[in-house]
Design brief:
Helices cover 54% and strands 12% of the residues. With 469 residues, it is of the alpha/beta class. Strand 1, helix 2 (20-25) and strand 2 (34-37) form a beta-alpha-beta unit. Helix 9 packs antiparallel against helix 10 and helix 13 (345-359) packs antiparallel against helix 14. The protein folds into 3 domains: 1-46, no CATH class; 55-199, Rossmann fold, CATH 3.40.50.1970; 202-469, Dehydroquinate synthase-like, alpha domain (Up-down Bundle). It binds zinc ion (2 copies). One zinc ion binds next to helix 12. One zinc ion binds at residues 164-165, 212, 288, 292, 312, 316.
Length: 469
């Protein structure tokens, strides 16, 4: 493979150096373990070393472990459902080949990646284990990733459902003190998905995965906005990979094949690719925007209230059409005629009151962090000037992304997913609150910040809470 000297110098020795052309032409499995010097000026690297996505992949997992030279002693982490779906069979197959496999299986139906779950995995882990094998989807993966990070024992993921895009992620969203905190962690060394297992996943898991893919519509739009207003770095190559995967998933969803042979592979590929894109950029920007912030806010509220929470992708799927409607409104706005004004002391007091009402015990920390982020008038003027100068071009680019799935809500409904906030226990008041304060969940520029800076957020939140979006 050819590549330029700077990419070779910064990439670790184990990475294959490839070109942008090769990246754009190859399939998802070939994007593992690579490094390339990109047209955006950065060198992108993918830490995940292998991906195995096919029928019967469980039978080939041992060969993969051998090829990656991971060792012979494993701890298999699963919940009861994922253990039944794939964990028991995999443990048996690995033992047949002479591996020593300890098991740590959570009995809960509703498992959270919180302090208690982390402690159980740590207690079950032998210090001389060579690897952790996470069999499951979101929560199991988040726990394994953190354990692997803290113990430096590598982990691989055996996916059991196409329900979320975190398989190849390098961050672990955990619930700590009831607050969702995203920790930097490590990449799995490999992702394995046996399509025979994945096809058996409940229909709800497919709807969730489709929700997490459709979320890329608004996540990618938010990224575009951030490049215009905040001068954040944008990468056409990585965004292009995401758009291609999104289009494929949308085409399949339109063909009503959800759960079918090709759909399971395409959806899983899109979801794993999202994680690979995050690795290339170094954060979750290509895959997560304001729709994820709304979902995180609802999750925190439900967790605090002791209510059962829905799958991540289901909540994100409900939040995405809300943000799509928000984009519909923003694209009609006359930006040039709307200056950005620094908040008055009265407005800041109202904002603080709102944060306290919505976030309870977490509020003070959020106020402290987010107040420091509020730009002054000169900062706002500069942002407005950048936005106004690019607005017509930006609108065209945003519309081109949104045009991939103007029927997103319909596709989700067709896949069997809930689409109205009420269907997942979110009242209209919680929808409005989320629109107003979800931007404080994390420091990432999205349409929510932009609408706020333009003085439009309250009006939009009122309108969206009043109408069915
Ligand atoms: Zn997600
Ligand atoms: Zn790039």
């Amino acid at each position: 493979m050819n590549g330029d000297a700077s990419a070779s110098a910064s990439a670790s020795a184990s990475k294959r150096i490839v070109t942008v052309e090769q990246v754009l032409a190859c399939d998802t499995e070939s994007l593992t373990g690579i490094a390339f010097r990109c047209t955006c000026g950065q060198t992108h690297e993918v830490a995940i070393r292998a991906m195995l996505l096919e029928d019967g992949a469980l039978l080939r997992t041992y060969d993969l472990i051998e090829r990656l030279k991971l060792g012979r002693k494993a701890m298999l982490l699963a919940d009861v459902a994922s253990y039944d779906a794939a964990g028991r069979e995999l443990a048996g197959k690995l033992r047949e080949r002479g591996m020593i496999v300890a098991e740590s299986v959570y009995p809960q139906r509703q498992l959270y990646a919180d302090e208690k779950a982390l402690a159980k995995a740590l207690l079950d882990l032998e210090p001389d284990a060579d690897m952790v094998i996470a069999v499951g989807s979101g929560t199991i993966n988040d726990i394994a990733r953190m354990i692997s990070y803290k113990t430096r024992i590598p982990y691989l993921v055996v996916a059991t459902a196409p329900s979320m895009d975190g398989y190849a992620s390098t961050v672990s969203p955990l619930l700590v003190n009831g607050f969702k905190v995203t920790y930097g962690a490590v990449s799995p060394v490999a992702v394995v998905g046996d399509l025979k297992v994945i096809r058996q996943a409940p229909r709800e898991m497919f709807a969730a995965g489709l929700g997490d893919m459709l979320a890329k519509l608004t996540a990618l739009c938010d990224w575009k906005l951030a490049t215009a207003v905040e001068e954040e770095l944008y990468c056409d190559v990585v965004a292009g990979l995401m758009l291609k995967a999104l289009r494929r998933c949308v085409d399949l969803a339109r063909a009503t094949e959800t759960g079918g042979e090709q759909a399971a592979k395409t959806l899983m590929e899109g979801l794993v690719l999202s994680g690979i894109a995050m690795q290339m950029i170094g954060n979750s920007r290509p895959a997560s925007g304001s729709e994820h912030h709304l979902s995180h806010y609802w999750e925190m509220k439900h967790f605090a209230a002791g209510k059962k929470t829905q799958l991540h992708g289901i909540k994100v799927g409900v939040a995405t059409p809300v943000v799509l409607a928000l984009y519909g409104k923003l694209l009609e706005a006359d930006i040039a005629a709307m200056p950005m004004r620094e908040k008055t002391p009265g407005q800041i007091a109202d904002w603080e009151r709102n944060i306290r009402r919505c976030y309870g015990p977490l509020a003070e920390e959020m106020i402290r962090t987010n107040r420091a982020l509020l730009p002054d008038q000169a900062g706002l003027d500069a942002r407005h000037a950048r936005l106004a100068a690019r607005w017509e071009e930006l609108k065209r680019e945003l519309r081109a992304i949104l045009a991939i799935a103007p029927d997103a809500k319909h596709l989700l409904r067709q896949a069997g997913g809930p689409v109205e906030p009420e269907q997942i226990g979110i009242g209209r008041d919680e929808l409005k609150d989320a629109l107003l304060v979800a931007k404080e969940v994390r420091n990432r520029y999205t349409i929510l910040q932009l609408a706020d800076q333009l003085g439009l957020l309250e009006r939009y939140a009122d309108e969206l809470a009043a109408e069915s979006v």
